[in-house]
Amino acid sequence: MLSKIVEKVAPSNKTKYLLRLYATAAPKTTSNAKREVKKPQENASFMANIFRGNLASTQVFPYPDVLTEEEKELTASLIDPFERFFREVNNAARNDENSQIDEETLNQLWELGAFSIQVPNDFGGLGLNNTQYGRLCQIVGANDLGLGITIGAHQSIGFKGILLYGTPEQKAKYLPQVSTEKVYAAFALTEPSAGSDAGSIKCRAVKSADGKHYILNGSKIWISNGGIADIMTVFAQTEITDPTTGEKKDKVTAFIVERGFGGVTNGAPEKKMGIKASNTAEVYFEDVKIPIENVLGKEGEGFKVAMNILNNGRFGMGATLAGTMKHCISKAVEHCNNRTQFGKKLKEYKGIQEKIAQMSLIQYATESMAFQISQNMDAGSQDYHLEAAISKVFASEAAWYVCDESIQILGGMGFMKETGLERVMRDLRIFRIFEGTNDILRLFVALTGIQYAGSHLKELQRAFKNPAANLGLIFKEASRRAASTVGIGGTDLSPFVVPQLSSSAKDAAECIDLFGKTVESLLVKYGKDIIHEQNVLNRLADAAIDIYSMVVTLSRSSRAVNEKLETADHEVDLTKAWCYQANERCRTNLKHATSGGHVNFYKDLSKIAETVLDNGGVKTTHIVG
Questions:
Q1: Which of 124, 224, 592, 618 is in the most buried spot, having the most CB atoms within 10 Å?
Q2: DSSP of 123-171, one letter per residue?
Q3: At what angle do helices 385-410 and 438-465 cross, to 10 degrees?
Q4: 435 carries an active-site annotation
Q5: What pTM value is reported for the model?
Q6: Per annotation, catalytic residue among 405, 435, 533, 571
């Protein structure tokens, strides 16, 4: 049985390509039937392991608290200046109206250190870690997302590559500029033919005969800070020679490009639906001479650089949008507490109460994810890519929902520009698109997890080729499967949560077990062709998102009880209600992923789409005329 599964799950070239776009390759194991199977490198990711039906609890329980007292004091000391800036200096409505941020506001942001939050002190920055950065992101998200994009494009992705991959010389040269010298940075990846499909970029850099520089030509579109940045992280195709075979092949290389090199120009600022205050422009490169020492990372490893920059920064979106949601909820609550209709305050109506509660649940889950991930990163975790992708998808969709419901509660007032929520809604729309569209990230979550599950099955197959040397591994797996078959030995989260959450923890545990079984059944059913079953993959991804949201809220609220926080009872209520809903959604999605009836439903959808696409639009007979 195992060998049949393994034969079917060998990833296709398309699967490998998609995974390579959004993460570094999963650890590989060597195989030799005559030797004992080597244990693969441990992956501590909670999400990766549930695809195998395993519980890896270290990154979810207990809820982390990694900041030292000194770091907490430093963070607290920065909150008031940041909030005061948005209260007294920044004008989000004016920024949106003018489609730019005025120079005085930007200067005060520089003075505040907002453009160098995570740059080490030695280079002029605030030197904050990911969790501290996330706390300040919440303040930005609650006040001005357009301005937030200007800050984020600069440091979350613009010069993040220098922090992650820069040589000591590159850091010494560029980090002081982007920290204290008011030099803006940008991240230049997207091209007219390369959005989610980053492998199809056309920008090309050709190495000189003496090997001392590259000549870059091409263009990039929709680059945040593209019109104001003087330092850019740029990705281009380069010819790389395989040192072993001598074969020449195009591979992407990352470069640090200065506008001062010459040949770097940009178009006019784009006219956008939202985040109007941020500068977005096309950038052109014509015979730009880049010194060889400005290669970022290794030649030919630009994909790795680009995707790790994006992976590293995604948690910040969750923190930012948690702040946005908090702002929207406060607007709705203020209205509910003051507005009277039909002789009663709005807050007294059950329908309104349900809306406020639902918005609060979603905000709590978003915030719990963001700071679970940031603190794991600060604790040294390298296995956070799946969780970060989930956080980005969840936060961007949650914030849209919360803002929309806030507008609905305010009614006509919510639709008016003066209230400010229509601007927030316009700003929010981009978050489901950039830094990896939610559609692609759902596929990434599902396919990365499936690949990890498949690698375990391959390990078992190799073990069976020489069972005498691998009895421990074989017996362990056999015992696990036998126990699961008779309904014992499943996931148990009760040791990690407080007693009042035991029922919710049981639901989450059952979802984890059901998830692992569903993944294996899908591997048996589809094998490597699973990549073509995107409807199924989306169901699987949504179930994974709900499981992660359940676990992080269980962990956080349990910590609140154990720490005797004044919000503990409220957090327990939030968690119970959230887990009830997430549990139902998760089971439904997993059922639909494997249901035979849904196969016909998906076929009908495909047939409908083909008809509409071939017809160039809606194809129905007009009722009249």
A1: 224
A2: GTS----HHHHHHHHHHHHHH-HHHHHHHHIIIIIITHHHHHH--HHHH
A3: 150
A4: yes
A5: 0.91
A6: 435
